[in-house]
DNA sequence: CTGAAAGCGCTTACAG
DNA sequence: CTGAAAGCGCTTACAG
């Protein structure tokens, strides 16, 4: 049997409540009493039982993180940073992989996962704002990404459109005229894919260049799909002198396919991505990309969620944060 | 206020215990009673409170996973697979990043993290077997990796030595004579680095070739360190016609550095790694590596831990499992 | 097959 | 500043 607060109270010669007060940093405790309790805790090696505390207080000191797939480098790096940020504030992070399955996403908003966590960092991919609103209950939710941008919900995101435009402008300034885009999602205009594509179009427009839909290839956001998309363009005889992968793994898959086919990068075709995952720096050639401010996203989203939990942030409307971005110009598109 | 078992009992017209029996699939319940309870559950939208259940039963339905850094691709992919495997058995996985810090590793063996989880999948990197034995308590622990191989503990690992030898033999068979090794850890002979280096030495021996310590470069297991290690060898004028990165990110960092320096891969220098992370297939050139059987590792480690939890496995001595491996011969070292 | 009672280890009003 | 009591929502012996 583990040591309980009762044992501590007995050894310290005080009541249960006094032990609880010491444990919870209650202000008005006589220093001598506090010391006696702390000595007893040390002597017995007492450790608070989090489950009992949770049952009574309704708080778990865990935050939920919902994302599609932890093995995607962007999510892996983000999760690692979020966990570190949460840990600095005394919270743990419980991760749920949704696989972009709507029923899994809905499931995390209620039931066990919700019970186990005090608040949620939620990357919606398959469900809509009203579905979240219908079951968001009283625990705070901070949305990540851009699938849902809604004034009702807190949101931490990145400057997708602006950054994609800046990257496209860079390619244009370098003399590229036919920039293929891979990773489009024709079925959704609101998400990251849509916003980044918008940025691309705006940059073209600003440069007085026509948009050519034949340069836009849809693809799932995976390496192999990026490779296949570029293969498709090449096989179809589409001409292009640059490829903008809407994220890094797409761009890296494309880069791989181009090199296999004997297409020189960047001399014949420049390649650029989005996310600046660790791997981008070490690709060969190294990948030009957008650093979307992942550190800032991690800090701000944890900060906002904890502010909501602690009642430090009480705005009725959702707070929207967009982290700053930075262009990383590397060998693949100098 | 959430719906409780009491509410269900009232609506169904039965006692608390009967509701509990239905919830816990107790065998001997009259079908009609069971139906009444299930109807009440559906009507009220009742969901069991996991915290209360945990407090009373001492079980949390969570497994702990301790690893150094979730953003390392190998760990990210492994964690994703472990979570999926656990989920199929009704368990969640709570991840703790240790950063290879001994005090963090020790901390996960007791205290809150231990309380929150029914069993542990533990990747020790900085602590030793006796330290684990001293605080392993009654909850099961399955070790991952090879830092600690001890008959007292269950262990799921890979065939490091055998696989490294097979990979080295492949390089030798392809005519490579001076194979540099990067990522050695001179301070530890037992871990993955030591075992893989052993495999390398055995393959050399088998081929009747001398071991040259000048070809072995220590490095942390990161991309940038792999690049720096190769740069060091080149700058020191060490001659080599192949590089064996003791894991994939080391090999990919090395590959990058070689290409930057104008060294042709594989014609001048072949490059091989270990792990077969997703990225290896899509590197340019694609990376020859060892697939260490990650699916098998995930399945077996979850399976073994759950067998211990359920009392299906009662062996007094630790059970050691080594997953099968496969050589993935790709462009970087054909 | 089902019920009434106790209790897991805390925190939370309520007193004093 | 500290104490005695109640109760969070379950499961677990114990009866019957």
Folded structure, characterized:
- The structure is a homodimer of 334-residue chains.
- Chain A has 14 helices and twelve strands.
- The model of chain A has no long low-confidence stretch (mean pLDDT 92).
- In chain A, helix 1 packs across helix 3 (31-44) and helix 9 (160-173) packs across helix 10.
- Chain A has helices spanning 5-12, 16-23, 31-44, 50-57, 73-88, 102-108, 111-116, 129-134, 160-173, 192-206, 223-235, 248-260, 278-282, 294-310; strands spanning 62-67, 92-97, 119-122, 141-144, 154-158, 179-184, 216-218, 242-245, 270-272, 289-291, 320-323, 326-328.
- Chain A folds into three domains: 5-48, 434 Repressor (Amino-terminal Domain) (Orthogonal Bundle); 62-158 and 294-324, Response regulator (Rossmann fold), CATH 3.40.50; 160-291, Response regulator (Rossmann fold), CATH 3.40.50.2300.
- A six-stranded parallel sheet of chain A has the order 2-1-3-4-5-11, sandwiched between helices.
- Chain A is an alpha/beta fold.
- Chains A and B meet through helix 4, helix 5, strand 2, helix 7 and helix 11 of A and helix 4, helix 5, strand 2, helix 7 and helix 11 of B.
- Chain A binds a DNA duplex (16 and 16 nucleotides) through helix 2 and helix 4.
């Amino acid at each position: 049997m583990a040591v309980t607060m009762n044992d501590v109270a007995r050894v310290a010669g005080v009541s249960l409540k006094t032990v609880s007060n010491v444990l919870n940093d209650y202000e008005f405790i006589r220093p001598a009493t506090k010391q006696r309790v702390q000595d007893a805790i040390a002597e017995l090696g007492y450790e608070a039982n989090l489950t009992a505390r949770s049952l009574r207080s309704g708080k778990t000191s865990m935050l939920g993180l919902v994302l599609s797939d932890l093995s995607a480098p962007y999510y892996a790096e983000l999760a690692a940073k979020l966990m570190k940020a949460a840990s600095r504030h005394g919270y743990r992070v419980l991760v749920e992989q949704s696989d972009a399955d709507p029923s899994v996403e809905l499931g995390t908003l209620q039931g066990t996962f919700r019970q186990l966590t005090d608040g949620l960092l939620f990357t919606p991919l398959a469900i809509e704002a009203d579905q979240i609103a219908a079951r968001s209950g009283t625990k705070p939710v901070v949305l990540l990404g851009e699938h849902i941008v809604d004034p009702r919900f807190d949101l931490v995101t990145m400057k997708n459109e602006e950054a994609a435009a800046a990257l496209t402008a860079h390619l244009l300034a370098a003399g590229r005229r036919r920039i293929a885009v891979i990773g489009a999602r024709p079925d959704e205009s609101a998400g990251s894919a849509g916003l980044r594509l918008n940025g691309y179009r705006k940059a073209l427009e600003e440069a007085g260049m026509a948009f050519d839909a034949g340069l836009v290839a849809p693809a799932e956001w995976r390496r192999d799909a990026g490779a296949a998309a570029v293969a498709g363009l090449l096989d179809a005889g589409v001409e292009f002198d640059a490829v903008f992968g809407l994220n890094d793994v797409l761009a890296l898959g494309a880069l791989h396919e181009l090199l296999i086919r004997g297409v020189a990068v960047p001399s014949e075709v420049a390649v650029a991505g989005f996310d600046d995952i660790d791997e981008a720096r070490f690709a060969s050639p190294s990948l030009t990309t957008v650093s979307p401010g992942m550190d800032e996203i991690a800090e701000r989203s944890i900060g906002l969620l904890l502010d909501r939990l602690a009642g430090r942030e009480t705005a009725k409307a959702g707070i929207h944060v967009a982290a700053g971005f930075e262009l990383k110009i590397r060998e693949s598109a100098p």
